[in-house]
Amino acid sequence: MFVSLLVSALSVLCPLGQTSLPLVVNTWPFKNATAAAWRTLQSGGSVLDAVEMGCACCEMEQCDGSVGYGGSPDEYGETTLDAMIMNGNTMEVGAVADLRRIKNAIGVARAVMERTDHTLLVGESASVFAENMGFIAEDLTTNKSLNIFTQWLKGNCQPNYRKNVFPDPSMSCGPYKPKATLNQRKRVAQHANTRSHDTIGMVALDQNGHVAAGTSTNGLTHKVPGRVGDSPIVGAGAYADSSAGAATATGDGDVMMRFLPSYLAVELMRAGADPSAACKTAISRIKRHYSDFFGAIICANTTGHFGAACNKVPGFSQFHYMVSNSESDTPLMKSVDCI
């Protein structure tokens, strides 16, 4: 009788599929990335290895056009990459932003963490560092990204992400000059465009509860050159602490990075919140200021509980993410209704 009651109690406290370690969780239905990370863990790799392999898989597969080469051209038509990786045991972080010519952004981020005393390298200097570390320089432009850029030029460079400026009268796409008034602003809002930007964010835990997290993205389509979103920013794009858990975010990085949602979610879990509640609170904090922002967050604590939350906007009422653990031993897609 006692054993039966104990099993019943555990089933309530530890729902099936939510308390098994090791664990891999990542944003979006990027199944192959989940599988790559899971295989890495199963073959004896570390959580850092798992996150790197999972994100690298998406970089090579150009997941959804929003990760890796050949996507999200900026105003010059160039694809640049952002990535980060964080070790929840040591609190070390490696990140790159505005990376050019290098396809394996998450690999470069790990090199920053393991081959330097720095946290974040950006732009051309990050690319030179990568080449010096042995990464191959390649053209990140593809026919697809070139076509996206060409169509944007034909549309008079709309939508774009400039405000309170106007282009040179002889040019449709800049150079841009400051504008004295706001009422002539020409810009198409994209805050709720779920196809304009997103990220692979991944969390991995091993059997001992060691945690790592990482991100990789090619950023925002038609972004102002040099723009860096939330993905490579510690506490915004991702955060990991093996004493509490990890979280990673996806969506409108220019808005989300202002609130450090991944850091907030981890600290909430440290204080006792379950992952779903932590994710919802992090999203709600942003929603109070930007009710129409597009974004989601996934969370996992050190016992293997996981959860997610998203902001409900037109065309985006449910968020899908991937999970793999010893209960399933295969990547499973999960869904959460947005708030």
From TrEMBL:
Positions contributing to substrate binding: 227-230, 250-253
EC number: 3.5.1.26
Chemical reaction(s) catalysed: N(4)-(beta-N-acetyl-D-glucosaminyl)-L-asparagine + H2O = N-acetyl-beta-D-glucosaminylamine + L-aspartate + H(+)
Pfam families: Asparaginase_2 (PF01112)
One GO term of the biological process aspect: proteolysis
Transmembrane segments: none
GO cellular component: lysosome
Active-site residue numbers: 199
Signal sequence annotation: 1-19
Keyword annotations from UniProtKB, A to Z: Autocatalytic cleavage, Hydrolase, Protease, Signal
InterPro entries: Ntn_hydrolases_N, Peptidase_T2
GO molecular function: N4-(beta-N-acetylglucosaminyl)-L-asparaginase activity; peptidase activity
Site (Cleavage): 198-199
Statement: the UniProt record of this protein carries the keyword Protease: yes
Function recorded in the entry: Cleaves the GlcNAc-Asn bond which joins oligosaccharides to the peptide of asparagine-linked glycoproteins.
Family that this chain belongs to: Belongs to the Ntn-hydrolase family.
Protein name: N(4)-(Beta-N-acetylglucosaminyl)-L-asparaginase
Organism of provenance: Echeneis naucrates (Live sharksucker)
Gene that this sequence comes from: aga
